[in-house]
Amino acid sequence: MVKLTETSNQDVSALVDDEFVGDSEVRLEGIGGNRESWETWQRYHLVRDVMQQDYTSSLDTDFASRVSRQIEMVELSDEVSEQNVVQPGAYAKPGRSRRKMNIPMLGLGMAASVALASLIGFQYFGAQDNPSPLNSQLSVASSGADAIVVADAASDTSKNGLLPAEFMDVSGTRWRPAIESPRDKQIEQRLNSLLTNHLEQAAMGKVHGILSHSRVVSYDLPANNEGN
Amino acid sequence: MLAVAPGLKSWFAISLLCFGFAPWLNAGNLNAGSGQSAAKSWTSESAQAGRTWIERMSRSMQDLTYTGSFVYLQDGELEAMRIYHTKVDSIEYERLSSLNGEAREIIRDADSVVCIWPGTKSVIVNTVQPRTPFPHFDPDALDELESHYRFGKMGMERVAGRTVEVIDIIPLDGYRYGYRLWVDAENFMLLRSAMSDSRGQMVEQVMFTDISYPSQIPLEMFSATTEGNAYKWFTGIEGKLPQLASESRIPGVAELALPDGFSLMSDEMTPVAGADVTARRVLYSDGLASLSVFITDGKDESGAGVLKGATAMGAVHAYGVMRDNWHATVVGEVPHAAIKMIAESLVLAQH
Predict the structure, then answer these.
(1) Is B92 an 8 Å CB contact of chain A?
(2) DSSP states of B73-137
(3) Contact A211 B120 (CB under 8 A)
(4) Measuring CA to CA, how many Å separate A133 from each of A123, B116, B211?
(5) What is the reported pLDDT for B162?
(6) Angle in degrees, CA B259, B261, B266, rounded to 5
(7) CA of A199: which chain B residue's CA is closest?
(8) B296 within 8 A of B250, measured Cβ to Cβ
(9) What's the N-to-C CA distance of chain B in angstroms?
(10) pLDDT score at A117
(11) What is the rounded distance in angstroms from the CA atom of residue B259 to the CA atom of residue B108?
């Protein structure tokens, strides 16, 4: 297979202009057997025809090529769908990026599918740690979120360029530290107790509805940030 | 700035696409663009209708069996949570779990409220209190409440695929928060709620993204799954009946400055989960907002774990002060101005 280089582009250009020096039949066979060369060949003809204001023949793309591309799009879509079910946190393989470049309209749809794949994979991964039916619906809560690794997924996405997601560390704190009382886990623990106690007593708790307990379940100090 | 937890990014992106979430997040002003329409709603009929909706909502949230997922926004932090709720034989059961970050959860049953924080490997257990629905105010009390809030119906919208009525409760001073409630038009379930300060700026928001009403939820779903040995359990003082506040050596409140409309609701002793101390808890409420003053013996505290000064978490503010050898912590869902005024004006009774 002939790898397209700048010299090869010159050959293609020369062939288009009927100015090639050498065995043109051999060269044409090489172009026909190489996808990139073939597409370059088509582009050069299109450019020539536009410059000569003759659009009709060149814009009538090869039917066989169109069918081939449609088949590739379906195959790629199927591969992503399979990854939705099987692979937690999976994204399209880096090798597919070249095809993605040639099928730009698939990008948005695939990005959405891949995002869904990572979400389903995230939840599925959590469910594997606690197969108990009582916990099946609360798999994340009972298994512990710290068991779910997403760091590798972040590096994979940067390679294939599909989702330039940047995962941000959770460093949420619950109680903002007072000036007189610097951030202290004992103080926060006591405040958590007092708040829970107060919420149970508050006469109008139902106006807050789910807000009241949501505060209690909101961000807590991550286990690995104990020094912060 | 919005901090997005790992793993939540994709979910959040999909939410943005599906719900047009971003405009809602950025619309931080409860009153933005609604000044004229809000004024039209402030009639006595709409105020009464708004209160009726709230009473029905309060009862539904206690009586219905439901499960769903919702998002919670406070201090610019967005979280997703899951809730299960049912009522069996007049006993409410509830389980609320975070879906991102550390797997925090709170479980409520007939006897206790269990709060689990895996990040700090701690479990806090408090005694459960019977919940009262939104009280039915007599006309005099309603007039008093409407001296500090304006109620109104703002029209119909759609949340989590359900048609809802929007109810506004606007505070008339800076010592309390306002509420916007999106109440299911069919079963009066609260599907979305927002708290705002007197300027209309949002301080907390909650919105269901999906909700269902199963015929029943197994009670096993409301059992704590955390192993006791792996976690440090903080409970109230075991086997010790709460002492009457009047007989306690802990002094009560002799004097303090309260915002208009707040009155004493209860004054009783309570164990403080997580500490070998008993506190005197004095609860105040204006009918909507509430706050508690917890008084403990300063000598018992030894300076550890006691708050000095102000702190806050979303719409909740707290303020700690020392009064001689006693420590007082004021906690409530009221703005900082109210908490600060109350704490700094506190005078304890002399024994």
Answers:
(1) no
(2) EETTEEEEEEEEEEEETTEEEEEEEESSSS--EEEE-SSEEEEEEGGGTEEEEEE-----PSP--
(3) no
(4) 15, 21, 21
(5) 92
(6) 95
(7) B332
(8) yes
(9) 50
(10) 45
(11) 32
Q: A198 and B292 in contact by Cβ < 8 A? A: yes
Contact A195 B331 (CB under 8 A): yes
The candidate with the shortest Cα–Cα distance to B34, out of B206, B152, B160, is B152
Name residue A98's amino acid. Answer: R
In tens, the pLDDT along B208-222 reads: 999 999 999 998 888
- Put simply, the answer to whether A200 touches B72 (Cβ < 8 Å) is no
CA distance A178 to A38: 69
State the DSSP string of B199-255.
T-BEEEEEEEEEEE--S---GGGGS--S-GGGSEEE---TT-PPPPGGGSSS--EEE
Question: Of the candidates A116, A119, A178, which has its C-beta nearest B309's C-beta?
Answer: A178
B79, B169, B310 member nearest A218 (Cβ):
B79
B182 touches chain A (CB under 8 A): no
B180: tokens are: 């916007």
Contact between B10 and A201 using a beta-carbon 8 Å cutoff: no
B115–A207 C-beta distance less than 8 A: no
Residue A63 burial (CB count, 10 A): 8
Q: Compute the average pLDDT of residues A47-73.
A: 52
Contact (Cβ atoms closer than 8 angstroms) between residue B97 and residue B105: yes
ipTM comes to 0.76
* Chain A residues lying within 8 Å of B126, measured CB to CB: 193, 196-197, 200
Q: Contact, A202 vs B315, CB < 8 A?
A: no
pTM above 0.80, yes or no: no
CB contacts of B331 in chain A (<8 Å) are: 191, 194-195, 198
- For the sheet containing B290-297, what is the strand order? B263-271, B278-285, B290-297, B326-332, B316-323, B309-313
Q: Count Cα neighbours of A203 within 13 Å in the Cβ-side half-sphere.
A: 19
Sign of the C-alpha dihedral, residues A216, A218, A224, A225? negative
- Residue A168 confidence (pLDDT): 31
Torsional sign, CA B171, B172, B173, B174: positive
Q: Which of B260, B274, B259 is nearest to B330 (CA)?
A: B259
Radius of gyration of chain B (CA): 21
Is B118 close to A179, i.e. CB distance below 8 A?
Answer: no
From first to last of the 351 residues of chain B, give the pLDDT tens digit: 333 344 444 444 443 433 433 334 333 444 433 333 443 445 666 667 777 787 788 788 888 999 999 898 877 778 888 989 999 988 888 888 888 777 778 787 777 767 776 666 666 666 665 554 444 444 555 667 778 888 888 889 999 899 999 988 888 889 999 888 899 999 999 999 888 887 778 888 889 999 999 999 998 888 765 555 555 555 554 444 455 666 678 899 999 999 998 989 889 888 877 666 789 999 998 878 889 999 998 876 555 667 889 998 878 899 999 999 899 999 998 999 999 999 999 999 986
